[in-house]
Amino acid sequence: MTTAELNLDPIRCTSHGLCAELLPDFIELDEWGYPIVAGRDVGPGAIRDARRAVSACPTLALRLQRPAALARSSRS
Predict the structure, then answer these.
(1) Domain boundaries in the chain?
(2) Using CA atoms, how far apart are residues 29 and 50, in angstroms rounded to an integer?
(3) What is the DSSP secondary structure assignment for residue 48, as one 8-state letter?
(4) Is 26 helix (H, G, I), strand (E, B) or coil?
(5) Residue 48 · residue 40 · CB < 8 Å
(6) Which one, of 12, 55, 10, 47, lies nearest residue 26 by Cα?
């Protein structure tokens, strides 16, 4: 995977803040401690850290997936 989209399920999130500690370039916390995910793709240099943040999420609220444009082009 060369780039990936980082997605957050706000319903599952209970604001532990671990993701923002592990991936501060892509996630910041709002005033209540809930994550705000940057709206840009995670590049190859940050994929490993992003996977670690996804794995560490206690509520499984984070997800890494291929960017939508790449997913569409691989299906055709």
Answers:
(1) 5-75
(2) 16
(3) H
(4) coil
(5) no
(6) 47
